[in-house]
Amino acid sequence: MYKTFTMELAGRPLSVDIGRVAAQANGAAFMHYGDTTVLCTATASDKPREGIDFFPLSVEYEEKLYAVGKIPGGFNKREGKASEHAILTSRVIDRPMRPLFPKDYRNDVTLNNLVMSVDQDCSPEIIAMIGASIATSISDIPFDGPISGTQIGLVNGELVVNPTAEQKAASDMALTVASTKEKVIMIEAGANEVSEDIMIKAIYKAHEVNVQVITFIEKIVEEFGKEKHSYESCAIPEELNEAIRAIVTPEQMEVAVFSDEKQVREGNIREIENKLAEAFEEEHPDWLPLIGEAIYQYQKKTVRKMILKDHKRPDGRAITQIRPLAAEIDLLPRVHGSGMFTRGQTQILNVTTLAPLSEAQRLDGLDEAETGKRYMHHYNFPSYSVGETKPSRGPGRREIGHGALAERALVPVLPSEEEFPYAIRTVSETMESNGSTSQASVCASSLSLMAAGVPIKRAVAGISVGLVTGDTDDDYLVLTDIQGLEDFFGDMDFKVAGTHKGITAIQMDIKIHGLTRSIIEEAFVKTKEARTYILDEVMTPVIAEPRKEVGKYAPKIITVQIDPSQIGDVVGQRGKTINAIIDQCGVSIDINDDGLVSICGVEKEGMDKASALIHTIVTDFEEGKIYTGKVVSIKDFGAFLEFAPGKEGMVHISKLAKERVKTVEDVLTLGDVIEVACLGKDKMGRISFSLKDVERYKNKAAE
Question: Which residues are documented as binding site?
């Protein structure tokens, strides 16, 4: 037997089946929202994983194409590796869930979210987050939840809860907020330059909805919740901590971590670890595997005390001070655009590549509204950027997430396809990393795009602020521009990107059980101040606006707008006409469903010729107009001319010359390119052309 729990969420029914499926999982919730169905399960191993110093949580979001009535493409005809969208959704679910598991828990936990049916008006992503929370909360896995998630849109200036597909298409904001019952725990957003005030209102509107859902979840837990199992704690023995403090005093640890050079600090910590290993080697060999984690916690306690109580940061900066900044463009001579942004020991080199719209990325997923994208941002994090040696195995979830965040930040300022008919790819190469490379990627991308001649509306910059909290909600400090150490040992990484006009992207990660409103509001104030400084003082002096033209090595694109009903004339039977134009002119041509023809090439002469040919194909012949054609066929009664691929006309023998012509060959030969005048329609309704009347019509036009 199973039981169904139901509530109304944003005007649509949300129901949860408990005990209906997946009975062998530690916890399972069969979620229904409208016609969207997601199976959410939580499972945990019986024992901790040996040899690790982290909580091994795995969050999976599985997209099955049967959910939208599709069969996967390709030869295999089954789903392969997770799509980027699925990976990003997994990360969004992971971030609010992870802080609520015990810090010393080392059992493997998997939260699986299987999307089985999709109603485009009822987001499977948000239901997966709620379902993961329910499955974990009713399981016997230790968890300090539940949480809930809500999406907020901004349509015609009004905030909309869990917007429908139509509302999402018209929305100026895509905000996801996760909360516990008391506090906000995760924020993810993309926005069309929305103000901080509107964003804060949206966040707390989402929080209100989350509280309602959590109340609903608590009723389910009350009836079906299992007793949480005991587990083998991996906490560091207090005896070891005391022994370490006897050898390395708090003052010595403070000196070790107080450096603005990452390599110096890491060298100091290695010396301490070696010293402790030597001290414990004989009497306490069982402590040796724990030294790394113990020193990590010692560093964390030291750094947090320095910042919160002494207002001292490890690199000596003031609380609101940004690390030294630098911006450059045009580092790489043959690429279409390049820009480099440096913030302390964080450095990103971004490269822009332009291509015809035919090279835009095609997407095959559950969202029917999004089948492709013309702007792609990719982020790479090689091991040398942090002084390590490791082979490259392709982008991981972190790289995909950072690339998507920077992409989301730039999309709102990109020109439309009509304004700039290019596919655009930017690649952020991490040269050096010591905190907040994703926001450095935003800055470098903005520089690179402007250097490439992409007419973005405004420059975009990004910055991250951190947080160190004390024992009470009022005891905290918000830090501007956190470096790696402050991220590792702090409580928050709050990234905000935007323009002078407003916010374009947000990503907030925290390690505690939520943020108060005062912390969030202060974070917005400090990110706006820092963003404004970066835009005005660092980026604008290097390049104030996009270049007026693309670079000499970039492809050139011109557009021709035709009536959509004439697309078939330009394409021709089986592509014969358009392929002939491409071959003749040495260009590439794309046509969209609205009749926008994009002609891409390197030589202006060939592009202009292709444009002229397309205009000829779609324009009706007019009396008195002069046309250029090539003789393609000769008959006894006249010559046939091709004015453009697939568009021909005939000059009667009587119209070849003012004097009488015996044969067509006396005047023309195959392959001749000549000018002829259009005489209009003859008695049979056919278009007639004349060679002998060209000068007369030219003189008439000149008058």
Answer: 487, 493
